[in-house]
Amino acid sequence: MPTMSNTECHICHTHKKDKFGYPRCNRNGFRLLHRWVYFQKTGEEPEVVMHTCDNPACINPDHLRAGTQLENIQDRVKKSRSQSKLSEKEKLIVREMIFKGNSERNVSRKLGVSRAVIHLIKEKMEVEV
Ligand SMILES: [Zn+2]
User: Fold this and answer.
1) Which of 16, 36, 50, 71 has the fewest CB atoms within 10 Å around its CB?
2) How many angstroms is it from 72 CA to the middle of ligand 1?
């Protein structure tokens, strides 16, 4: 588990936000401000920059950490305790995992999403998962 920083969130009010609430920017090829902030701090561009504080508008470098898309999904599922809000991108990851030879059960366990949901995604059924 990431350790929660004691410092306050720095909520960004100066930038327009995308539909997920992440402040957008256009700096050195970065489209999302928190990714740029993380790059300034670490010099790294990980697959995913996650918020340990769960606050998309937060740009406190202490609240940002590197993660993978897989971790990102696991984190969201864990925190929301719901299996309901997988984005199109996440569904693609599920399909990709299955395509690479992971069983439904395996994917289900790795992501913490129910097997029924994985099955539906696999079948590419048009359901709100
Ligand atoms: Zn924060």
Assistant:
1) 16
2) 16
Tokens of 4: 């929660």
Q: What is the mean pLDDT of residues 101-112?
A: 90
Look up the pTM and report it. 0.61
pLDDT tens-digit profile of 34-43?
Answer: 999 999 999 9
Cα(61) to centroid(ligand 1), Å: 8
Query: How far is it, in rounded angstroms, from Cα 34 to Cα 47?
Result: 13
- Ligand 1 centroid–CA 2 distance in Å is 13
CA of 95 to the centre of ligand 1 (A): 32
CA distances from 62 to 2, 4, 9, 41, 120 (A): 11, 9, 9, 9, 38
Q: Is the pLDDT of residue 46 over 50?
A: yes
127, pLDDT greater than 70: no
